[in-house]
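Q: Convert this sequence to structure tokens.
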Amino acid sequence: MTKRKYQEEKGARIGGINEDELMDLADLFKMFADSTRIKILVDLSQGEKSVSEICEDLEMNQSAVYQLKILRNAKLLCARREGKSMIYSLADDHVSTIIAMGKDHIEE
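A:
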């Protein structure tokens, strides 16, 4: 298969990333564009917590629940039920890595 035919089948690629992947990457970075969501992610980088613990740590009301749903839908958080409470944690180490790399970048 020629390079041109491959590009036509897979869509244009920029830096080895196709258009669909670029859109997914943009959506991922949008999740980090809200300070409340960043606070939640940083708080959960210390370990799993319930909604009430997150709200207490961040001195927020239960409106953080909406942000938790957004982060969970973006596959940045995992949740499990423990009795009547939902316990949240980071989905994987990539989330902590993104935060750490961002922090390193702004400190340069």
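The mean pLDDT is 89.
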